Amino acid sequence: MAVTEERDVVIIGAGIAGLTAARELRAHDPLVLEASDRVGGRIWSKQCGELAMSVGAHMFPPPDSVIGGLVTEYGLDVLKITGSMLNLALQDRVIQDARPELMPFKLPLSLRGRTSFARAGLKVKRIGDEYMRLAVQQPGETAADVRLRLLQYGGDESFADFLGPLHPEAERIFRALCNRTIAEPGEISVSAMAALFGHVWDTGDLGRNMRGGSGLLPEAMGRELADQIRLHTRATSLAFDGAGVTVGYEGPDGAGSVRARAAIVAVPTPDLIPFMADAMTPGFRSAIDRVTFGPHVVLSIRTGEREPMPWDDLYSILTPDYAFNMVFNHTNSLYAAGTPKQGSVLMVYGGAQRGYALLGKSHAEIEEIFLRDLDRLYPQVRSNIVETWVMPWAHAGAFAAPGRWRAQETLERGLGGRVFLAGDWVSDFVSMETAALTAIDAAANVRGVIERGGVQQAAARPVVVPRDPKATKRVQAFFGDASSAEE
């Protein structure tokens, strides 16, 4: 008969949220269970000499953030993105460096399309501004208060209903933007798009890439926590057991279980339902069901050219009329820092329905579909390809659908005062930073259980809304990285 281990806390998931929680709880001998063969979750990259290919989250917040602090602590190097981020491909040509307010006049649209796009742009500018005003924490408020308020703002209305009827030329641009957040306009709330546009025009301070690839951060965290992490180990059950919880798992050596005083669940909701279903209350299950995940199908392309290319000065391009909806140039920051050119790393991805259309296809089919469309924009790519990497993320990230805010208080509270949730899907905005912040909150709750005994109500953490006064930074999140991570 297998012996049940005893731990203070068990953490399920070794993405950036699970790793951050484990670091916070190092003094309490955490055990981290990770079903895959690596740490990092949706942050995944690999080095290729001076270059790095990535199929996950790739943009980093400033040094005064939680993630920025970890980057500094581990001695990693982030490079400022200098390339243009506000670019859009229409009619197989790239319209570069258009300020948001001037885009209706630079894009090749008909008069009706231009008018429709301009009117919709004014509406989203307004909700973006209001979102950032609501994001400021008031005296006496908790982080949970602010998150709930942000999710409630336009939280019952779809973005499509908010925009109203659009000219087809304008609709396809806004659809591509929604696809970047892994949703279609009719699926995503005004709240979620207000968050996107609010970060565009107010802060947008995600303008950094990591030298050597974003995966270096979770890898460094994983090395530090190696004794606490078990890879290839999938949680199979979670049950309340007297004054603690018992988590069953399947690992390389077979089935086992661990009994802990508390647990942190840091995996996407589609992955937690199978092992948590029997422990869920109806109210908790209803809250979990309100969290909606969507796909990103990603292709990373490494090329070997040494000569200049037309994408060299660009970082990201919105592509409404292609199988993918975004193009990123991941070598822009590297070469701006003075590294001699030795090829490029481009990343394209299709989200929402573009992603769903590809999930059942082979990697070779996905690659060919993406390259065929990329040929229309940059025919130079195919003849210079050295290596490709396809990653179809079925659950790439969460988005706030209409009504999502109604789940927030339950998600903040966790389950039974002993099981707490971490991940950017618990927050109002998807990013590495929000994943880390929810992990710190969850760890504080676990610490309360361990140190004071009994059950713990969700702890509060002050909300910090970074501000960047430079107008050149206001659009970075617009075409930046929402996977998060994340993350």
The count of helical stretches stands at 17
The low-confidence parts are 459-487
CATH topology of the largest domain: FAD/NAD(P)-binding domain
How many domains?
A: 3
Q: What's the CATH first level of the largest domain? A: Alpha Beta
Distance between the termini: 38 Å
- What fraction strand? 15-25%
Can you tell me the CATH superfamily of the largest domain? FAD/NAD(P)-binding domain
Radius of gyration over all CA atoms, rounded: 22 Å
Number of strands: 18
Structural class: alpha+beta
Name some characteristics of this structure:
alpha+beta, FAD/NAD(P)-binding domain, Polyamine Oxidase, Chain A, domain 2, 7-stranded mixed sheet, disordered C terminus
Structural commentary:
Helices cover about 35% and strands about 20% of the residues. By secondary structure, it is of the alpha+beta class. It has 3 domains: about 5-45 and about 55-80 and about 210-290 and about 400-450, FAD/NAD(P)-binding domain, CATH 3.50.50.60; about 100-205, no CATH class; about 295-400, Polyamine Oxidase, Chain A, domain 2, CATH 3.90.660. Strands 1, 2, 9, 10, 11, 12 and 18 form a 7-stranded mixed β-sheet that branches. A 5-stranded antiparallel β-sheet has the order 14-15-16-13-17, with helices on both faces. It is globular and about 65 Å long. The two termini are about 40 Å apart. Mean pLDDT is about 90; it is low at about 460-485.
